[in-house]
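Chapter review: from sequence to fold.
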Amino acid sequence: MIFLEPAVTPLSKPTRRPDNPRFSSGPCTKHKGWSLAALDGALLGRNHRQADTKGRIAAALKQTRSLLGLPEDYRVALVPASDTGAVEMALWNLLGPRGVDVLAWEAFSADWVTDIVDELKLTDVRVLKAPFGELPDLAQVDCDRDVVFAWNGTTSGVRVPNADWIAADREGLTICDGTSAVFAQDMDWSKLDVTTYSWQKVLGGEAQHGMLILSPRAVERLEAYTPPWPLPKLFRLAKNGKLMESVFEGATINTPSLLCIEDYLVALSFVERIGGLDGAMARADANARTIADWVANTPWVDFLAVDPATRSNTSICLKVVDPEVGALSADDRAAFAKRIAKRLEKEGVAFDVASYRSAPPGLRIWTGATVEHADVEALLPWLDWAFACEKEALTGAA
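The token string follows.
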């Protein structure tokens, strides 16, 4: 058995609790003041293709465009199957005419590698990989090829710092999984040809509905290129060589949840109330900065993200760096981190903060715009307390 230092006395249990202990990275918490009563206007029991319901969807698309500041010639659509469905639609419709550079540095970006290499079976593919906590070398990306990447790695807490590495005069398309970045991070739309996200991340909306944003260059590809593989109905965006414009005007590919659409409109109204996109980004930045200040003064914990310039302001991934815990086996280190998360959940102060199942062991705390800053402040002493309790249990067992 490994020799450990004598047990230390745990910190006193904090007395202040977060009003909202929901720090899950998806589905993420609703904004403060949300209630089911806000959905009373939902057009339940109505056909999704008639004028009133299409009008609600069109209103959501219009408000999305306005809040995000999208260029006038960009198109926005509501599509099935959350962010995953939106990314899949882009990959299956658009890839093939050019070589592909795909960036992978965490769980979901690795999934896109699997799709491109194993499912679409494209052969001219360069996979630019990096371990959890790091980014691939962005200088190696060839923007005359199609580029597939996540703006923010939800499972690693690592994001691209900006879009400067994307060439303005590129020949290829950029396909960006933006699900934990849109409405939280400053995204240069001129550099993004396809962007996807889901309501259940930064906006705290409901799952199973995705958003697809296309540049004119992406539309041009859709109309000029027919993939050699069959496209399921749920993926089809073009017909007879023309974009299905109705999908970008309020029609949907399949039946959406009208209740969820109403909830999305409520979430967009929340963003307007907090100062629009700038306000939403500022809230996420303030939450993340508070955790960064705590990490800087807390010796047992550090960010999984190696470079401060690439740290996410939404999905904060932390690792335990205490030397005694570090001396444990990999399985025991993982179990230690899980016990911290379980202790916090048992106390009712933080739910769902264990790291993603395939990520390095640690904690993952969502700090997007729907999370109140006061709740982040209240959480931090509980993290210290839970660590101290588990450390005492560990040293006592030794």
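Two observations follow directly from the output. The longest helix spans residues 373-397. The chain has two domains: 39-272, 276-397.
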